[in-house]
């Protein structure tokens, strides 16, 4: 059943993959490159249906593999088209060289990546390892918490990617299996409102693109000093994307009535003594446990990362400064370091946090669920740390056997 709400949206129960497919339709892409892989396949299936029934007016190119998919959308984007594709795990790894080339060419491609563990252990299981493996490819990374945010982030991603001051590819991530196949009510914007949201792009200078008979070098070899200039401008554009994304979030609220806070979402952070930092679908569970802990007087909050690349360090430091204890929850590993990858990145700014203690929690990898009990354990551990008790620097919540039993009696996190 579909219902109008204030003539702005339609509410329909759909999967996370369904939300991504409908959002792709609403942005009116010129070219879609399609190749299936679990748990992303449903996106391509639905787009194929939209295309076959005439609901989606685009060139749908069914390629022979993910590497071809990225090359197709990169080329179409450089020719001035709006493009879309989707992948997951092994597919993202297979297209890695083209992912790098797309970023280097500053092609404003938008792709959905449905997070899943990457090759190494042959398994079809959830985890954010594929995201972590490509975090330094030069793309902007956005992470969705639920099906509604998938819908909204895909639409917002195009405003960000195609902004004249940005012109960078954007990858929208969401947790495979937990969100890809989850069905919940989603407000689906009307086509007219989405079109109006993109009108601002028509008023900006036309971006550089390939024109038949014209001259344009893309991915040229041997430009030496020019290469340094391109790299610098790429980095500068990524830094500009932080404030730009915050503005886009506010503009989105004016049209669609939904705002998420931009780069990060702060949940009950103002008076929090202890804080969990997380991303993706785990945040819904964390919010539920926080509410229960608050009912018994524990002042705990959540800092949810929505923009992961570029890393929102300035706004995160501002939100976390002075908190007694901070726990970063990673759904992936940083091989060569004890702690999770987002934890290790935030550690780089530890001296700016005003003496806050920080520890790492690893949970939700290899298809393990981040349960309310697990979150409760994390919060209890943070409370112990805030009270000066001995706790581990790194806790494998999903695999307790990995946690060493001996702790030095120093009243601080184990280093």
Summary of the model, kept short:
By secondary structure, the chain is α/β, with parallel strands linked by helices.
What are the salient characteristics of this protein?
6-stranded mixed β-sheet, Rossmann fold, globular, alpha/beta, disordered C terminus, 415 residues, single chain, 7-stranded mixed β-sheet, 14 helices, 2 domains
How does this model look, in words?
38% of the residues lie in helices and 19% in strands. With 415 residues, it is an alpha/beta fold. It has two domains: 3-256, Rossmann fold, CATH 3.40.50.970; 264-402, Rossmann fold. The strands form three sheets. Strands 4-3-5-6-8-7-13 form a seven-stranded mixed beta sheet, with helices on both faces. A six-stranded mixed beta sheet has the order 10-12-11-14-15-16, sandwiched between helices. A three-stranded antiparallel beta sheet has the order 1-2-9. The chain is globular, with a radius of gyration of 22 Å.
